[in-house]
Structures are given as C-alpha cells and as structure tokens.
Amino acid sequence: DTEVTQTPKHLVMGMTNKKSLKCEQHMGHRAMYWYKQKAKKPPELMFVYSYEKLSINESVPSRFSPECPNSSLLNLHLHALQPEDSALYLCASSQDYGQIETQYFGPGTRLLVL
Amino acid sequence: AQSVTQLDSQVPVFEEAPVELRCNYSSSVSVYLFWYVQYPNQGLQLLLKYLSGSTLVKGINGFEAEFNKSQTSFHLRKPSVHISDTAEYFCAVTSSYGNKLVFGAGTILRVKS
Predict the structure, then answer these.
(1) How far is it, in rounded angstroms, from Cα B100 to Cα B77?
(2) Which of B71, B88, B43, B75 is nearest to A40 (CA)?
(3) Chain A environment of B32 (Cβ under 8 Å)
(4) Is pLDDT at A99 greater than 90 in this prediction?
(5) Residue A42 is nearest to which of B41, B94, B106, comparing CB atoms?
(6) What number is the average pLDDT over the span B13-28?
(7) How many helices (H) and strands (E) does chain B have?
C-alpha cells in the first residue's frame, strides 16, 4: 500500500473561518510533508515532520499551523487565511528524512479562500 | 543550493510519436534526481528516480531518463506516447544533505490524436 490520503478534496472558506486539512498514511513512514501548489506552479515545501516532530518550517505564516498527532496522521490547521492562500495543498510521506527516500504524494486538497 | 530548469513549459506531440522533456540541474554537491507526473486535478506520482549506478533509468508507463553529469541533465523520454500521457511533468532534485525536494517549473505534455 503506497497510498497517502487527504481530506477534504475541496474546501471553500472565508477569511474568518477556521478549518483543518487532514493527511493519513499507513506505510510506516516517519517523515511527512506539507506542500503548497499554486496554479501553473511547482509544489513548494511548507513543513516537514520527522518522527512526529517539526523539522522544517519554510517561513510559513502563522495562519498555517501544522500538527502531527501520531506517526500516521498530519493535520494543517487554517485560520484567518487570505485569498492568495488559495491553492492545492499536497501532503507527502517518506520512509525517513535525511535519507534519499522517495516521497509519496496524496491527491491534494484544493482550497479556495473567499 | 540546488536548482532545476525545465526548458519547455509546454510540449505538444502527436500520439505514437516519441517525446523528450528536458531537465537541467545545478548543484555543488552530489544530487539525486526525480521525475514526477501530475495528471489534471490529482497529486504527484513518481515516474522514476536516479540515485546512483546506471545512468539510464527506467520508470513506469514506458518512460526512461538518462543522467548526464557532464551536461548536468536528466531528460525524460518515451518512444511512443499515448493520449493518456497528457499531464504535467516535474523534474526534481535533492542532495545527500536532506530530503528537501526542489522542483522545476514543470512541463505540460499535450498528446494530440
């Protein structure tokens, strides 16, 4: 099973809303990632969790708050977003971090901020 | 730091024709190279990767790529494309110092009948 699942598939929210994106993998991977992909652009790394600890934060605004409740789950909490935050949010996982491991991507959550 | 340049933003090709998607990288250290495919409204799927060893790498769906260190290139090829290959293709690089993927801008492959 090389599947990374993400929910919801689509999300529309206002600038005052609070919402969460969820990501799950059951491959026993110990590294999980959040990427943001704007239209017609490549994915950009936001956060990396390694062994459930935040390893990398690519200077992401605090209105994005990641959480890793356990080794299989990764959340991204959203609050007071701006319209320019509308994008496809991709989750990925790999066996480990700091090694040359393949990252497996989920299908993404397409977010629209009104 | 690593960087990736995909030389073509769009590549139109007729069905059953061969195709080459170009990727050049720059890095001061040893690199590891990947090609991912993204079908419309989907996430990224790994096509193939080069870590070490043979410079000709075969991947899924009949794709292959050749690592050329002297030309700092990792071009993706397929001898005969299908309509279903229409997608966006991303070249990506990482180094032995971590698993941070740096993506190119992407190449949209449009296969026409």
Answers:
(1) 25
(2) B88
(3) 100
(4) no
(5) B106
(6) 94
(7) 0, 12
